[in-house]
Input
Amino acid sequence: MKTLLIVDLQNDFCPGGTLAVPEGDEIVPTINKLINVFDIVIQTQDWHPADHSSFASSHEGKDPYDTIAIDYGEQVLWPDHCVQGSMGAEFHPDLNPLKTQVIIRKGFRKAIDSYSTFFENDQKTSTGLTGYLKERGITDLYTVGLATDFCVKWSVLDGIDEGFNMYIVEDAVKGIDLNGSLELAWKEMKEKGVNVTSSQKLL
Ligand code: VGL
Ligand code: ZN
Output
């Protein structure tokens, strides 16, 4: 069964939010159309405690977009975003929520960030998504949402490693682009074997 995976389409990642992805909200109408042609819709929700370790504000003397070494590797420090219970963590108000069957929250452990919908940034702690998909016999995931070069990319790469057929809908994602990260993300996803498709082909 064809399943749509909508990554982090939350207020803080849209213009006006604290970690706004340029034109992040412009993909919402396309995604609403795609929702109509999918049997199953899954959403992810970045969901951080207010003192999360990925926030620059949690590290004295650090600014947003600095990087630090954490025991699991390099971590970009972000502006505070998607704090549990805040408006910024809510989904974009125009996104059709009705067909969503499950919401995977991630990044709720203070010490570990989580870009991917499958594994947190230590690459070990599971979100449970693989088990959910396997239990339901879901094999093909069409990925849309924000941000192409962080949560979308890591979800696609891990999804392939977990044995799923991963698709990315190229006109239904938007990137942050930090020091060339957007171009690198496309390269990494393509090298790993993502299927690139478009809303025009699906609708
Ligand atoms: C994301 C940075 C921090 C994303 C989440 O959704 O791509 N990026 N948290
Ligand atoms: Zn985050």
Summary: The longest strand covers residues 165-174. Residues 31 and 103 are 16 Å apart (CA to CA).
